[in-house]
Amino acid sequence: MSRQPDVTVVVAVYNTMPYLTTCLESLVGQTIGLDRLEVVAVDDGSTDGSGAELDRYAARYPDTVRVLHQANSGGPAAPSNLALDHARGRYVFFIGSDDHLGPEALERLVAAADRWESDVVLGRMVGTNKRYVHQAAYASTEERLDLFDSPLPWSLSNTKLFRRDLVERHGLRFRTDMPMGSDQPFTLEACFRAKKISVLADYEFYYAVKRENAQNITYASRFEERLRCAEELVGFVAGLIEPGPRRDAVLVRHFSWEVAKLLRAEFLELSPDVQQHVHDRIRKLAGAYLTEGVLARMARDVRVRVAVARDGDLAQLCELIRQQSDRGLPEVTVEDGRWYAHHVGFRDPAFGYPDDWYDITDQAAKALAKLTATGLDWGRDATGARALVVTAHSRWAELSELSAEAIQVSVGELAGVTSVAPDGTGTVVRTDFAMDRLLGVVAANGERRVVRAKVTALGGTASAPLRTDRRVAAPRMLARHGVRFHLVTPTTNHKGQVIVAITPVTPGRFLARLRRIWPSGGK
């Protein structure tokens, strides 16, 4: 290659076949053209044929693809650094060897960087195979993105376009002492030093792949490595950015993500001595850097979790994790139309946390919509017509205080006539479904409909299927609608959901049933 390429793509490779082939094909097929592109790939001691695949592409594209081989280093940092040492492009772009690019990605990114004189350009990333990618930073195309006043701290992977002069001028390299997360300090410092950061949101530039065997380093990392990664990241931010709102704007990501994710249900599976060790380290980290400014920016549940990790003992922390891991709501206090969860620290003077940290009013409708079915029966509705009667129970007495319009129980799309009444342990909900109405909207070949409750309360609306802890059912009923007969079967399915199965009775089905009862040649 005689002229300087516009962009060098750095690929650190370790055992990523067959995804590597897709990655490389997406690079050599870029619309920017092979003459403006350089690919520097480093095989980090692969054992699955990845090294040979790289060599095959280098042979096919000798003026574009360069391959370096080294013994396994244990992570992507060392091969990425080696590739940077050999990069010649005006810009560098990093790609995971199991990911791939949209065809126009590099052409669009380089054009934007040249047009806006940007040092860093983000192109919209999307996840594939259920890979999670935080999307807030890609909400819209922006010529200038502020590190401290945008969602950028939530998108600190190195999968961006960087001006190589910026990288070399500040000696930016990847942390080889971090088995995971080594790209975040690199990206953060590049963004911190950049004169201008831009984002392009009008194209799918980067496809982040979650492998079928879930062996991406992000997913395969061990607990101790994740803990050390959190400590290193928080310490790096503290060393790079002065105390105050700007540091807080970055640290809120690390405490909300890397730290708080260590304090989930899996924490309870650790042995008590390991739990104490982890808690001691997180408490030390939070004591040093978890400021009021960081706490103010956090989601409520995460805020309480990291605050209790800082201020409480191990037993209190474990209890809170259990409470937050429970799919149901804990005991609540309802005051002035607001709901407050009785999680650890609520109105405990030893913690002194404000009530709004425990405000779960926005979850009230979801909680009220979860009903437990207690009975399915045939009866009569208020007009005397035959009806399916569905009874259910809610632990919440507050449900009985809502208006009739706020509570709806439906079989499929058909809403029944619902009434509620307190019973001392919560609320009893009764819903009548007139048989004529049930059969009036059934499909010609029958159907199975789930019974659902929908509640509108305190500014929110939520729905949920009726469930039961035990099997409930009503006798199968033969009913006529017009000239047609149907079998109506109210019961529960394998998920514990209440359903109503409606099956038309045709001559063929009638004869088949007779044959089952009186088989040919039987007596």
Automatic annotation (TrEMBL):
CDD domains: Glyco_tranf_GTA_type. One of its GO terms (molecular function) is hexosyltransferase activity. It holds the Pfam family Glycos_transf_2. Keywords: Transferase. Residues 231-320 form the TarS/TarP linker domain. Residues 8-134 form the Glycosyltransferase 2-like domain. InterPro entries: Glyco_trans_2-like (IPR001173), Nucleotide-diphossugar_trans (IPR029044), TarS/TarP_linker (IPR054028). It comes from the Bacteria. This is Glycosyl transferase family 2. It comes from Micromonospora chersina.
